[in-house]
Design brief:
Layout lengths: L6 E6 L1 H4 L9 H16 L3 E6 L7 H7 L3 H24 L5 E5 L8 E2 L2 H9 L3 E5 L10 H10 L4 E6 L4 E2 L11 E2 L1 E3 H6 L7 H9 L4 E5 L5 H6 L6 E4 L3
Parallel strand pairs: 1-2, 1-6, 2-5, 3-4, 3-5, 6-10, 9-11
Antiparallel strand pairs: 7-8, 10-11
């Protein structure tokens, strides 16, 4: 088995770590994802992971509690640091060396994000787990995923989700929803498809960063995406 991409940025939602419940941590899910990451690393792939925090803290909680938006966003960033540490522990149990870097400075726990250091970790085949988004409020984790993918010179951004690709409309609500296996950036814009938030999508388009959207709940999909098998949907310059 041969990897199609040498360096990959994987965007994992926090809800993924919570398994079916989508909250807290699910040991079986953490073990499964870590095992798949080990398989990817065994192919020589350099892997960076941006992790969200939705299993611990979501914007809806802040709204219900009356917490101001920026304060809530910083709370969410701290939740991603917790998730990064949990993911680090699970991955290292498979024998893979990792490093966690955070856009917020919590140096007694994890490294601060330094681009050159991050690139060095990847070159040394360490899995790089990136926490705290971009360190700025008012952005979803899509934007730092796109930003880090470009900064770290990844070959592709892989967005792991709860659905198996990009659809014309929500497949859970509409039976006539159409799945797109391949799209150009322009087509995704014309069809007003919700691939990523617009800031993140524009970053990818301007830097010719392919985006693969796939279902993380289907076992083996990370490896399939890395080796170029048809899985989920891909957005790129040309079909």
């Amino acid at each position: 088995m041969i990897a199609k991409y040498k360096r990959v940025l994987l965007k994992l939602s926090g809800e993924t770590l919570g398994g079916e419940a989508g909250t807290g941590y699910d040991a079986a899910t953490l073990a499964r994802i870590s095992s798949e990451i080990r398989q990817v690393c065994d192919l020589g792939v350099e892997l960076a992971i941006v992790v969200g925090g939705g299993n611990i803290f979501r914007g809806i909680y802040a709204k219900n509690l009356g917490i101001e938006r920026c304060a809530a966003d910083y709370m969410g960033m701290l939740a991603t640091v917790m998730n990064a540490i949990a993911l680090q522990d699970a991955i290292e149990k498979t024998g893979i060396t990792t490093r966690v870097q955070s856009a917020l400075e919590v140096e007694s726990v994890v490294e601060p994000f330094v681009l050159r250091r991050g690139l060095h970790h990847l070159e040394k085949k360490r899995v790089l787990i990136l926490a705290a988004g971009s360190g700025n409020p008012l952005f979803t984790t899509d934007t730092p995923a796109a930003l880090r993918a470009v900064e770290l010179r990844a070959n592709v951004l892989m967005k792991a989700t709860k659905v198996d690709g990009i659809y014309s409309k929500d497949p859970k609500k509409f039976d006539d929803a159409v799945k797109y296996d391949e799209l150009t950036y322009e087509e995704a814009l014309e069809k007003r498809l919700n691939v990523m938030d617009m800031t993140a999508f524009t970053l990818c388009m301007e830097n010719d960063m392919p985006i693969i959207v796939f279902n993380i709940r289907s076992e083996g999909n990370i490896l399939k995406a890395v080796t170029g098998e048809k899985v989920g949907s891909i957005v790129r310059t040309d079909k």
